Amino acid sequence: MIVTWFLSCIARNALDFAQVPFSAGQRWSRLGRVRASYWLVGVMGAFFCLCLMFAWDTPYRQAGHLLYQRGPDGQHAKISDIGAPDERQHANYVAHIREGKGLPVLKPGSTDLYETYQAHQPPLYYLLAAGWSSLLGADPTSPDQGTGLKLRSLNALIGLSTLLGVYVGARVLLQNDNTALAATAVCLLPMNLALHGALSNDPLLIALCTWSLTGLILGIRTGFSLKIVLIVGLSTGLALLTKTTALALFPVIALGLLAGRNRDWRVWVGCLALPAVLAMPLWLRNLGLYGDPFALKAFNEAFVGSPQASAFIEGFGPWAYWANFVLWWTARSLIGVFGYMDIFMLEQVSRTTSGVFYNLAVCLLILILVIGLVQVRKMSREDSRLKVAMVPVLALPVIVALLFVRFNLQYFQGQGRYLYPALAPVAWLLAAGVASPQDKSPAGLVRAIVWSLVLLSVSLLAWSELGPAFAIRLSGITQPSS
């Protein structure tokens, strides 16, 4: 009851924040607000519970075998932590702070590099997680599954702010309650739930990128008040203190301000200079420690043993590398591939069935995305502010994708989670394809509900397979049938 009340309060405040007077100058009816707030609470509740379910069924700091990757002996590769990617190293970072040792330092070539290779990351998430672990009395280095659930629950809570940001952004951008609810439901994708059910700095980055873009859209729609400028500036600055990927927000914000022909220097300072000021102490520290403000040099030196793109290209050719490895692996993991890119949905049925499922899911999402783009394009012809707002909305996924391509030019990392900082704009376009912003009839709500139930069903399917799949990998028994 307390949790329900808490979520209801947050949802109602988000709805109030999203009540922007648009062209018609109308605000929501009381009935509309109540209906939307309860539906939003339902999606938030399902998201939070599913994150904890994924967290509980994902092993924490336990060794196991990768069934689709082989070791030097030709057998299933064995790794020290079979659960979420890089989670052990993120937990070690948290433990380092919790023990009062300050921020760790990445030392390429050190004997404990396997345990510390995330030490170059900006510290914000780890400071929060260290406080959370102390509050709950959970030791990040303990292999206890209950301890892992406590630590992972922080990201489930952080994810709720992402849902609210996605909702508010969709409501402000597309001016349709049903479309906003459909956008929020995109957060129920299995991969997103798995990310928020693990100990990692990705969920905080996603949340802050979402609110930075939402604030920017709100400013374009209604004007940049001090409150909105602070939302953009602080969200961007905190994102820079979470992960270097947040640098992508700078060109996005600049493009949005330029498209809107904003000439107020105070807006530019607040949205672009404030984040740089917040991140400057970290950048100066990195410059002194690693020789560059973003610790990229140390990162490259430490990751010399990672899968190199050049090796794949030499072995398989450029087309096979980009199409069969990067694109295919990334497309599947956008929907949901778990563990160390080793657990695929429906793999226990057969590999063929699994492949068909991913192909159909990817094609359906692309089709819906295209429909959404067409719908928004139609609206933008009659709404000049929407046309301007779409510049940063489209810029974020494009820039994040370019950074992802750049990363894969050096290392093979076909993981969809690297694209999730652009979750919000993709969710808005998918929602526009499901529940057209121009259709405010009850049929639009029905489509949003059906869409939510479909995503919920897919995630429940993924969760139901997670436990048995990890059990196979923990025991090292034979590979699933083909």
Write a brief caption for the model.
With 482 residues, this protein is mainly alpha-helical.
What does this protein look like?
It is a single chain. This protein is mainly α and 482 residues long. The protein has one domain (2-475). 68% of the residues lie in helices and 3% in strands. The protein is built from 19 helices and four strands. The protein has helices spanning 2-17, 30-57, 87-98, 113-116, 124-136, 145-174, 177-185, 190-196, 202-222, 226-240, 249-259, 265-290, 296-302, 309-316, 318-335, 351-380, 384-410, 423-434, 442-475; strands spanning 64-70, 76-79, 337-338, 343-344. The strands form two sheets. A two-stranded antiparallel sheet has the order 1-2. It has a two-stranded antiparallel ribbon with strand order 3-4. A hairpin with a 4-residue loop joins strand 3 and strand 4 (343-344). Helix 6 (145-174) packs across helix 18 (423-434). The radius of gyration is 22 Å and the shape is globular.
